[in-house]
Design goal:
Elements lengths: L1 H19 L2 H16 L7 H12 L17 H16 L13 H12 L9
Helix pairs in contact: 2-5, 3-5, 4-5
This protein binds heme C.
The site of heme C has 19 residues, from helix 4.
Length: 124
């Protein structure tokens, strides 16, 4: 009995080390990669695809206020803070509090929008 427990313990431990830790962030990235290519052909604009997401998950901390010095209150401010915002979302650090999380698919949309020049819907 004494000798059977140890291998079982070691096996579970290595399984955890390989597949358990750090899994959450990898999932968000995988979802993002699958979507990134398909979004290249889609037209994305601020009022339709970006603002509602910020109002759902980042307001009022970054709209009425500039928590941590970062404002997302309008298009210009959002473009300025987008790269840092994406980095924090992927790390699971934003949104704070009980605001709905941003999914990997939504991160892909934010990234694609910025890469296409961060346009407002009127500019299209
Ligand atoms: C409940 C309030 C709250 C919500 C909701 C929230 N944040 Fe924050 N955010 C903060 C606070 C407070 C800080 C200051 C730094 C810290 O405490 O980590 C911050 C810092 C930041 C920073 C700047 C980090 C720095 O130190 O320069 C960015 C960028 C940011 N948040 C993006 C976002 C995005 C994007 C969302 C929505 C997906 C979001 N936050 C949702 C409260 C919030």
């Amino acid at each position: 009995m004494k000798y059977t427990i140890l291998p079982v313990f070691l096996f579970s431990f290595s399984f955890l080390a390989l597949f358990g830790w750090g899994k959450q962030n990898d999932v968000i990235k995988a979802e993002e990669i699958v979507l990134a290519d398909s979004l290249k052909e889609v037209s994305l604009c601020y009022e339709t695809h970006v603002k509602p997401l910020i109002e759902r998950s980042c307001a009022p901390c970054h709209t009425a206020h500039s928590a941590g010095g970062a404002s997302l209150k309008d298009l210009a401010a959002t473009i300025k803070n987008m790269d840092e915002s994406i980095a924090l979302i992927i790390k699971g650090k934003m949104p704070k509090g009980d605001k709905p999380k941003v999914s990997g698919a939504e991160v892909a949309v934010l990234k694609a929008w910025k890469e296409k020049g961060g346009k407002s819907c009127e500019q299209q």
